[in-house]
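Q: What residues go here?
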C-alpha cells in the first residue's frame, strides 16, 4: 500500500468521505475538513506512520502531506 493510499484510508475513516473524491491535489477545504478535523487527522496519521507531522501552511493538499510523510520515513 502506498503512502497516498494509507493517507486516504485514514482520511476516509476519520471524515467518512468518499475515497474516490480524494486526489493528491485535494485541499482540506475541498474535503470539508475544518481545523479540528485537520488536527485529528494529523494525530491519526502520526499513529499510522509512526512519525511526528508538523501541520503548517505548507501542507495545503493531500499530496503535500504524502510528501512530508515520505520525507520523514526516508530520512
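A:
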Amino acid at each position: 500500500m502506498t503512502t497516498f493510499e494509507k493517507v486516504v484510508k485514514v482520511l476516509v475513516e476519520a471524515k467518512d468521505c468518499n475515497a474516490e473524491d480524494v486526489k493528491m491535489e485535494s485541499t482540506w477545504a475541498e474535503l470539508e475538513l475544518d481545523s479540528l478535523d485537520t488536527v485529528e487527522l494529523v494525530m491519526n496519521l502520526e499513529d499510522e506512520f509512526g512519525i511526528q507531522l508538523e501541520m503548517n501552511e505548507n501542507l495545503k493538499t493531500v499530496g503535500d502531506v504524502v510528501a512530508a510523510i515520505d520525507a520523514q520515513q526516508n530520512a
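A: Context that may help when evaluating the design: The domain at 3-73 is CATH 1.10.1200.10 (Non-ribosomal Peptide Synthetase Peptidyl Carrier Protein; Chain A). The longest helix spans residues 35-49.
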